[in-house]
From TrEMBL:
<dbReference type="Pfam" id="PF07702">
    <property type="entry name" value="UTRA"/>
</dbReference>
<dbReference type="InterPro" id="IPR050679">
    <property type="entry name" value="Bact_HTH_transcr_reg"/>
</dbReference>
<dbReference type="InterPro" id="IPR011663">
    <property type="entry name" value="UTRA"/>
</dbReference>
<dbReference type="InterPro" id="IPR000524">
    <property type="entry name" value="Tscrpt_reg_HTH_GntR"/>
</dbReference>
<keyword id="KW-0238">DNA-binding</keyword>
<keyword id="KW-0805">Transcription regulation</keyword>
<dbReference type="InterPro" id="IPR028978">
    <property type="entry name" value="Chorismate_lyase_/UTRA_dom_sf"/>
</dbReference>
<dbReference type="Pfam" id="PF00392">
    <property type="entry name" value="GntR"/>
</dbReference>
<feature type="domain" description="HTH gntR-type">
    <location>
        <begin position="6"/>
        <end position="73"/>
    </location>
</feature>
<keyword id="KW-0804">Transcription</keyword>
<protein>
    <submittedName>
        <fullName>GntR family transcriptional regulator</fullName>
    </submittedName>
</protein>
<dbReference type="InterPro" id="IPR036390">
    <property type="entry name" value="WH_DNA-bd_sf"/>
</dbReference>
<dbReference type="InterPro" id="IPR036388">
    <property type="entry name" value="WH-like_DNA-bd_sf"/>
</dbReference>
Length: 241
């Protein structure tokens, strides 16, 4: 954003989103920008910057000469959940994260490629499950390069918030993650964990977290139990225009 910093934008966004969630508008058309700016106590320039960001995120559509339109269907939190536990809580489950194992091992070819490592470099492999009412909903195998870790008490890691984990154990700030989704049959080693028949179709994903210097810092592979976790995405059609 050109004039409004990120923290200010987030505060404005939260106020606008509260309006979206608690009020209805005829044909979903928002009040005039002047009226919204006055109501929020911000300048028209700042409001327009915020609305542009909301349009890029898919919450609203801007139409020159017509106005701004909110999309109630995009307000569903699961479409934008950063954490598996948030999705599961929204579905009504009691959630927990259970660490199954930790081990050091040389990075294999795939890990070296994803994390830009040299042959012989080691990674810390964390295997854990996200539970929904004590049932395994997501199985994760995560890899962290040994050379990036700044602490040795890895057994004390908390996996509740990945950005906090990366900050505390690597001293890095997360910028983004890239995700590649792959349909597959449930791996043999997960048949008993998920308690599903052998060959059951499931979704999996390969996920790489990058820091603000665009260096890969964590490589995760996730497997989703179809009885508890379904993937949904939002396609903002205006971005393709």
């Amino acid at each position: 954003m050109s004039r409004t910093n990120y923290s200010a934008y987030m505060a404005i966004k939260n106020k606008i989103m509260e309006i979206f969630r608690t009020e209805t508008f005829e044909k979903n058309k928002l009040p005039s920008e002047a009226a919204l700016a006055s109501r929020l106590g911000i300048s028209l320039v700042t409001l327009r910057e915020s609305l542009m960001m909301l349009a890029l995120e898919g919450y609203i559509t801007k139409r020159h000469g017509s106005g701004n339109y909110v999309h109630p269907s995009t307000l569903d939190y699961e479409n934008r959940s950063y954490y598996f536990t948030e999705y599961l809580k929204k579905e009504g489950y009691q959630t927990a994260i259970k660490l199954l194992s930790q081990e050091w091992r040389p990075a294999d070819e795939e890990a070296r490629k994803m994390l830009r490592l040299e042959e012989g470099e080691r990674v810390l492999v964390n295997r854990l499950v996200y539970l929904a009412d004590d049932h395994p909903a997501v199985y994760t195998m995560g890899m962290m390069p040994e050379k990036l870790l700044i602490r040795t008490d890895v057994e004390e890691m908390s996996f509740a918030y990945i950005h906090v984990l990366i900050r505390d154990y690597m001293g890095r700030d997360v910028a983004h993650a890239l995700n590649e989704y792959v349909p597959m049959g449930v791996p043999d080693e997960l048949v008993d964990i998920f308690k599903v028949p052998k060959g059951t179709p499931i979704d999996s994903s390969h996920q790489v977290f990058y820091d603000i210097g665009d260096e890969p810092v964590v490589y995760n592979t996730h497997y989703f139990n179809p009885d508890y976790y379904r993937l949904r995405t939002l396609q903002n059609w205006d971005l393709g225009r």
